[in-house]
Specification:
Blueprint lengths: L1 E2 L9 H11 L5 E6 L3 H7 L8 E5 L6 H7 L3 E3 L8 H8 L4 E4 L4 H5 L5 E2 L5 H15 L4 H7 L3 H14 L2
Parallel strand pairs: 1-2, 2-3, 4-5, 5-6
Helix pairs in contact: 1-6, 4-7
Organism: Muiribacterium halophilum
Protein name: Glycosyl transferase family 1 domain-containing protein
GO molecular function: glycosyltransferase activity
Length: about 170
């Protein structure tokens, strides 16, 4: 969900999906976003995969919670990331999140169990973590934590940090 560009790891989506599909044949994939790699991703979807993969393009921001509430797992495969708001949005809708360990992803998810190390085995690591969540479920406490991460709470935490230095 987001920018379909290399830095966001858009080129990793199909290989991860294909590995998960080997384990869970009923798996479907929704790719939401736009960017330089959208056409390549579209061209790389094999004919037999077309009924299992939906490439939507960009969607209005107000539709994100609706989409998140209907999906089973959100995975972020970014090569570089700040603090992705989509993680809190997903957890607030009780959608499990798996991500690559960079930027603020680990902190935003809140449990390193759902974060994978980025190396040459990243495709295998992400797909295995998704399969693990399919098999075993997700830590319900993370959903509760996300309920308390409103913009007001985040802003107050930042103000408190600034006050420590004044």
């Amino acid at each position: 969900m987001g920018n379909l560009i290399s830095v966001k790891g858009a080129d990793r989506v199909l290989p991860v999906f294909r590995k998960v599909k080997e384990y869970a044949n009923e798996t479907k994939l929704i790719i939401i976003g736009d960017g330089d790699l959208k056409e390549k991703i579209s061209n790389d979807i094999e004919e037999k995969e077309k009924e299992d993969i939906l490439l939507t393009g960009r969607i209005p921001h107000n539709e994100i919670p609706i989409i998140l509430s209907k999906i089973d797992i959100l995975f972020l495969q970014s090569r570089n990331e700040g603090w992705p708001c989509i993680i809190n949005e997903a957890l607030a809708t009780k959608t499990p999140v798996i991500g690559v360990d960079n930027g603020g992803i680990r902190e935003a998810i809140g449990d390193s169990k759902y974060v994978v190390y980025a190396d040459e085995h990243i495709i295998d690591r992400l797909s295995q973590k998704i399969i693990e969540v399919i098999k075993n479920g997700y830590n319900e406490e993370l959903y509760l934590k996300a309920q308390n991460m409103t913009w007001d709470v985040i802003i107050q935490k930042e103000i408190d940090i600034y006050r420590m230095f004044l």
